[in-house]
Design brief:
With about 120 residues, the protein is of the alpha+beta class. The chain has one domain: ACT domain (Alpha-Beta Plaits), CATH 3.30.70.260. The protein contains 4 helices and 4 strands. The protein has a 4-stranded antiparallel sheet with strand order 2-3-1-4, sandwiched between helices.
Length: about 120
């Protein structure tokens, strides 16, 4: 069970990673609709990043930036990904990543960059 102080640390870390993703997005060229933000949270163990990146690579997605950290035993990662050349529709990629998350015991959230930015605007 996650304690309140641990939940507060998680939320703080997610806010920091969101700020990082926004700053990276602001420095990249305009590629409206071609970028997604992926957030991954779960109990730390070897192979989390490898599993997520394997799903992306198999579908020809290009990772533009990654921010990840370990807090105690909790793994958190935010990725900015270019999907203009993916081999499946966005909905298929999202489903594949979410399925991978369920199988690996991870929470994986996939959003278009524009939606992510709108949700995290301060």
């Amino acid at each position: 069970m996650t304690t309140k102080p641990k939940q507060e640390k998680i939320q703080g870390n997610i806010r920091l990673m969101a700020a990082h993703a926004r700053s990276v997005a602001a420095t990249r060229g305009k590629t409206e609709g071609n970028r997604i933000v992926i957030a991954v949270i779960g109990e730390d163990r070897p192979g989390i990043m490898a599993g997520v990146t394997a799903v992306l690579a198999a579908r020809s997605a290009n990772i533009l930036d990654v921010s990840q950290t370990i807090m105690s035993d909790l793994f958190t990662m935010v990725m900015l990904v270019d999907i203009k050349a993916i081999s499946v529709p966005f909905a298929g990629l999202k489903t594949d990543l979410e399925k991978h998350g369920q199988e690996a015991g991870l929470s994986i959230i996939v959003q278009h960059e524009e939606i992510f930015k709108a949700m995290h605007r301060v």
